[in-house]
Amino acid sequence: MSAIIKFDHVNKYYGKLHALKDINLEIEEGQVVTIIGSSGSGKSTLIRTINGLEPIQSGKLEVTGYDLADKKTDINKIRKNVGMVFQHFNLYQNKTVLENIMLAPRIVLHRDETENRQEAEKLLEMVGLSDKGDRYPKQLSGGQQQRVAIARSLAMKPKVILFDEPTSALDPEMIQDVLDVMKKVAESGITMLVVTHEMGFAREVSDRVIFFNQGEVLEDSNDPEAFFEHPKSERAQEFLSKIITL
Predict the structure, then answer these.
(1) Residue 191: CB partners within 8 Å, gap ≥ 6?
(2) Which is one GO molecular function term here (predicted)?
């Protein structure tokens, strides 16, 4: 496998706050990587640098062959390849579910309209919402909206999909439906980076678990089961002891 994302001595600051401290990571194509850690540890900042939502101050960050630190890089070329699912859905409230999914492929990829609709309908079926295409986001539950957001991201056929705490804004009974869709996405072979507090998902689905603490990678394990059973660092042990793992 080849690395599709490379962090090389990446640093990120918010004023005097050193949010990402000398990050060195390589994410291989097809990997499902879960990033866990306490709130404010820098997890979301890390994945938001990958599609340029957060600029880095030093180091080198390559995504799908493009160098984000190079001012000549067209960020839109990266965003064609990198999908993102946010905590709060970010759907267009004035467009139907089907229109939300079809919009970016129409504008960015200039996809044929018939093909675009067919792809959108397939994705709605995949996320279990084939009967909701003509609804508007406000007519759906939070969990349903998040599944639409996943379908919308997949519609661009990205090489990488980023999930920024996709279940944290949902009612508990909605979470499992979203996690089940994410499992389907993982099975499709797409590269996934998932910031989450869902330890059961991290343990079951991940190829790799990264434990983040105070802007640093404290542990990076290619054996999620071993990490959850026997974390090496005291900080990871403390973190896992305070949460329920499945």
Answers:
(1) 4, 5, 27, 28, 29, 30, 31, 32, 159, 160, 161
(2) ATP hydrolysis activity
- Cα 4 to Cα 240: distance, rounded to the nearest angstrom: 29
Amino acid type, 126 = M
E strands, the chain, are 3-14, 17-28, 32-36, 58-63, 66-67, 82-85, 160-164, 191-195, 208-213, 216-221
Query: How buried is 131 (Cβ within 10 angstroms: 0-12 exposed, 13-18 middle, 19+ buried)?
Result: exposed
Per the DSSP assignment, residues forming a β-bridge with 209 are: 34, 221
| Three-state DSSP class for residue 80 | helix
CA 175 to chain centre: 16
Residue 199 phi, psi dihedral angles, 5° rounding: -70, -30
**pTM confidence score:** 0.93
Q: Output the six-digit token pair for 26.
A: 């390589």
Nearest Cα residue to 60 out of 29, 83, 26: 26
Cα–Cα dist 7/50, whole Å: 9
Q: Three-state DSSP class for 142?
A: helix
Q: Which residue has the tokens 């639409």?
A: 148
